[in-house]
Design goal:
CATH class of the largest domain: Alpha Beta
CATH superfamily of the largest domain: Type I PLP-dependent aspartate aminotransferase-like (Major domain)
CATH topology of the largest domain: Aspartate Aminotransferase, domain 2
Number of domains: 2
Radius of gyration: 21 Å
Number of strands: 13
Helix content: 40-55%
Order of helices and strands: HHEHHEHEHEHEHEEEHHHEEHEEEH
Strand order of the largest sheet: 2-8-7-6-5-3-4
Shape: globular
CATH architecture of the largest domain: 3-Layer(aba) Sandwich
C-alpha cells in the first residue's frame, strides 16, 4: 500500500541493497569489498584550487551549464582519448555527478510512460533513475557465462512505447567491456526503432588487457546524433565526494539537458568546478599506472575467489565483478550476512542487480579497487570461512 503522502514512484523505490549490512560492517570493522570507493585523495592541485576559489569569492551561482574552463577541459580530454571533437559551449553540461547526469538525460529524452531498456544485471541506481523520471524500465538479460548483449534480446524487449536504451560501459556489476559486435547490434536496434542511447561511462579509463573503450563518442559516429554520453570525475580523478559529472550530446539535446539541469540542481558547486578545472588534461602516465594497478588487483581478486569456490568471469573493465555462488550451498543474501559477521568482509548480495531479486541469489558483487594490503587478507578470510563452513557441514552429515 502506498503511504498517503508519497508518490507511487517514490514509495516503490527499494532501499539500496547494502543498507541492511552496513551497520554490521561498520560495527565489526569489516573490510569493504562492496563499494567502489577510490583509494587515495584527489590531486593536490585540485584541492588547493578549490580552497582558493572558496577564499576568493567563487561562492555564488556560476553558469548553470558548468564552468566554461571545465567544459573546455572535458572536451580536450575527449579529443585526446577518443579523437572526437566536442563543442564545449554547445555540447556539454556539467552535472552534479553522473547520477544527476543520468536523471536529466532520462527526463530530457523520455516522457512519462515511455520505456527504457536496461541490460540486466544492472547498476542498482539505473532502474530507480528511470522510474523517478516517470519512465518504465524494461530489462534485457545479458546472456551466457560471459554476459553478452545480443540483438535478439534487445529486439524482444522493444515495444511501441520504447524510447531509449540505458547502457553502462564498462559494465557495473559484471565487468564487461562491450565489444564491436554488441555495439553493432545496439546500433541496429536503435536505428530500426529510433531510440535514444544513454551511456553511463564513468569507468571509461578502466578497460583491461589492452581492450579499447567503445562509445558513441569516437567509436560509433553513427550513434552520435541520438546519444547522451554521461561521464564523471569520481573515478580517474578520485573525486567521488565532489559530485562532478558531465553529459555530452548534440546541441539540440544538450539544450534540453541544460533546461532540466537548471530545474534540478541549477548548477554544480562553483568552487569545486574551479578545483577540477585547474587540473587541465589528465596525466596519461598516471592513468596508465592506475589502470595497470587495478588490473593486478583484478587478477588477485579473481584468483582468491576461485580458490574459495566461486565461479568467476574475469572482468574486462570497470571496478567490479559478479561472482557466482551456486556451488557454495547458500544464496547470496545469506552468504553476504555470513561474510560480514564472521569473515569481517562486506560484499554486495546479487539480489540488488536483478529485477527479480531471486535471480540474484546465485551472485555477489566484489569491488576490485581496494588496496592490495586489504584485499589479500580479506580474500583469505573469505576462503577460510567457506572452507570451515563446508567442513562443518560435512561433519554434521557424517554417519
Amino acid at each position: 500500500m502506498t503511504p498517503r503522502h508519497l508518490s507511487r514512484r517514490t514509495a516503490g523505490l527499494p532501499p539500496l541493497g547494502l543498507a541492511a549490512l552496513l551497520p554490521a560492517a561498520r560495527a565489526g570493522g569489516a573490510t569493504d569489498l562492496a563499494l567502489g570507493i577510490p583509494t587515495g585523495d584527489p590531486p593536490a592541485a585540485a584541492v588547493e584550487a578549490a580552497a582558493a576559489a572558496l577564499r576568493t569569492g567563487a561562492n555564488q551561482y556560476g553558469d548553470p551549464a558548468g564552468l566554461l574552463d571545465l567544459r573546455i577541459a572535458v572536451a580536450a580530454q575527449l579529443a585526446a582519448a577518443r579523437g572526437v571533437t566536442v563543442d564545449p559551449e554547445r555540447e556539454i553540461v556539467i552535472s552534479a555527478g553522473a547520477t544527476e547526469g543520468l536523471l536529466i538525460a532520462v527526463i530530457a529524452t523520455t516522457d512519462p510512460g515511455d520505456e527504457v531498456l536496461i541490460p540486466q544485471p544492472f547498476f542498482e541506481n539505473h532502474p530507480g533513475v528511470v522510474e523517478l523520471a516517470g519512465a518504465v524500465p524494461r530489462f534485457v538479460t545479458l546472456t551466457g557465462p560471459d554476459w553478452r548483449l545480443t540483438e535478439e534480446a534487445l529486439t524482444s524487449a522493444v515495444t511501441p512505447r520504447t524510447r531509449a536504451v540505458l547502457l553502462n560501459n564498462p559494465h557495473n556489476p559484471t565487468g564487461r567491456a562491450f565489444d564491436e559486435a554488441e555495439f553493432a547490434a545496439l546500433t541496429a536496434v536503435c536505428e530500426r526503432h529510433d531510440l535514444v542511447l544513454i551511456t553511463d561511462e564513468v569507468y571509461d579509463r578502466f578497460t583491461y588487457d589492452g581492450r579499447p573503450h567503445l562509445s558513441p563518442l569516437g567509436s560509433f559516429p553513427v550513434l552520435r546524433d541520438r546519444s547522451v554520453v554521461v561521464g564523471s570525475f569520481s573515478k580517474a580523478r578520485r573525486m567521488s565526494g565532489w559530485r562532478l559529472g558531465y553529459c555530452v550530446a548534440r546541441p539540440e539535446i544538450t539544450a534540453g539537458l541544460r533546461s532540466v539541469h537548471e530545474r534540478t540542481t541549477l548548477g554544480t558547486p562553483h568552487p569545486l568546478q574551479r578545483g577540477a578545472a585547474a587540473l587541465g588534461m589528465p596525466d596519461e602516465a598516471e592513468v596508465d599506472t592506475a589502470r595497470a594497478e587495478f588490473q593486478e588487483r583484478r587478477d588477485l581478486v579473481c584468483a582468491g575467489l576461485r580458490r574459495a569456490g566461486f565461479t568467476v568471469h574475469t572482468p574486462e573493465g570497470g571496478w567490479f565483478l559478479l561472482a557466482g555462488t551456486a556451488g557454495l550451498g547458500r544464496g547470496s543474501s545469506e552468504l553476504a550476512r555470513e561474510l560480514v559477521t564472521r569473515a569481517k568482509v562486506l560484499v554486495a548480495p546479487g539480489s540488488s542487480f536483478f529485477a527479480d531479486p531471486a535471480d540474484g541469489e546465485d551472485w555477489i558483487r566484489i569491488a576490485l579497487v581496494r588496496d592490495r594490503t586489504e584485499l589479500a587478507p580479506a580474500l583469505d578470510r573469505v576462503a577460510g570461512h567457506l572452507s570451515g563452513a563446508s567442513l562443518a557441514v560435512t561433519r554434521r552429515g557424517a554417519p
